[in-house]
Specification:
The protein is an alpha+beta fold. It has two domains: about 110 residues, Phosphorylase Kinase, domain 1 (2-Layer Sandwich), CATH 3.30.200.20; about 220 residues, Aminoglycoside phosphotransferase (APH), C-terminal lobe (Aminoglycoside 3'-phosphotransferase, Chain: A, domain 2, Alpha-Beta Complex), CATH 3.90.1200. The protein contains twelve helices and nine strands. A hairpin with an 8-residue loop joins β1 and β2. The relative contact order is 0.14. InterPro entries: ACAD10-like, ACAD10_11_N, Aminoglycoside_PTrfase, Kinase-like_dom_sf. This is Aminoglycoside phosphotransferase.
Length: about 350
């Protein structure tokens, strides 16, 4: 834990005293003194635990420095989680949003702290096979719940442009990738060209999508498989639901270990982890679908998007704006691998 006396630099530029003053004004019942600690690992929006004598909160802010247009939208994170309160999608309680850059230098929001278990590795080391299966099925239940949200009832009909999701996303992430490109990557160029030529026609499906749905963005109960919070909504929008499901499958195709967090080469049956086909079937059952055609396109798209995201992380690290510059450079080195994975899913690997 870092005391306010250590100053802003010890907390990555977070002005703890300014946060304390603002929190006392905006959230009823908050008293000081306030202390904070930076939560390690986040590469996008820096996240902090805030400690008062009575309660613990979580603060997420935009990173300092020059940012890509539409990136790090903490305002959107706050809005969607507030809208989901009381739904079948578990989210922390949103407490207050600050859009005044003058308070700490960028927009931020504060939410209640939710306790639970986090799993960085999809192998779920130390978990019994029967519970692993239950946790994976719970993930699919939550994902189906996200895609089943009534946008009108939750006030989210304007949360994204709506139709032609893949066309919009391919165009958006190609622009983002170009804006953060640091050197030519041949497989990324091939993948962009293939996706551009194979973007499907709009099939009319339109739902809330998380945009980064994976096990390390979920918080589970201390005991049992129940998901108690879905975190990191920065990439959420209105879009096509298959992208979230394909992102899971894409991630599991990566190598095992803390660097890649995949399931490549794992004996999933022995561990109690459902196979990809079983996961897709469980999702289809929850959402009333008979199946999903051309699933390889969706996986290829997700690999491209992840490559573009990590290229942005690398660029911020080189520019000195990353939350963790050293880690940012490490993650940026994986861009060619995601491009190769995308081509493989497309049948061109």
């Amino acid at each position: 834990m870092v005391d306010t006396s250590l100053g802003n630099e010890a907390l990555g530029g977070l002005d703890v005293r300014a946060v304390e003053d603002w929190l006392k004004r905006e959230v009823e019942g908050v008293s000081g003194p306030l202390r904070a600690e930076k939560i390690a690992g986040g590469q996008s929006n820096p996240t902090f635990r805030l400690f008062t004598p009575d309660k613990t909160f979580v603060l997420r802010r935009k990173p300092p420095g020059t940012l890509l247009k539409s990136a790090h939208a903490v305002e959107r994170e706050y809005r969607v989680q507030k809208a989901l309160s009381g739904s079948d999608v578990p989210v922390p309680k949103m407490l207050a949003l600050c859009e005044d850059d003058g308070v700490i230098g960028s927009a931020f929001y504060v939410m209640e702290h939710v306790t639970g278990r986090t799993f960085d590795d999809p192998c779920l080391e130390g978990v019994a096979p029967s519970e692993r299966r239950s946790i994976y099925l719970e993930m699919i239940r939550v994902l189906a719940a996200i895609h089943s949200i009534d946008l009108e009832a939750r006030g989210l009909t304007d949360y994204g442009p709506g139709h032609n999701y893949y066309r919009r996303q391919i165009d958006r992430w190609t622009k983002q990738y170009r804006a953060s490109e640091t050197e030519p990557i041949a497989d990324m160029e091939r993948l962009i060209e293939w996706l551009d030529a194979h973007a499907p026609e709009d099939d009319g499906r339109r739902s809330l999508v998380h945009g980064d749905f994976r096990i390390d963005n979920l918080l589970f109960a201390r005991s049992g498989p129940d998901c108690v919070a879905v975190l990191d909504w920065e990439l959420s929008t209105i879009g096509h639901p298959f992208a979230d499901l394909a992102a899971l499958i894409m991630q599991w195709g990566r190598p095992t270990g803390p660097e890649h967090r995949g399931l490549q080469g794992v004996d999933r049956a022995a561990l109690g982890i459902p196979a990809d086909d079983a996961v897709i079937a469980a999702y289809c059952e929850k959402t009333g679908l008979s199946g999903i055609e051309n699933f390889g396109f969706y996986v290829a798209f997700c690999a491209f998007r992840m490559g573009a995201i990590l290229q942005g992380v690398k660029k911020r690290a080189l520019d000195g704006n990353a939350s963790d510059p050293e880690r940012g450079l490490q993650l940026g080195a994986y861009v060619p691998g995601f491009a190769a994975d995308g081509l493989k899913a497309a049948g061109h690997g």
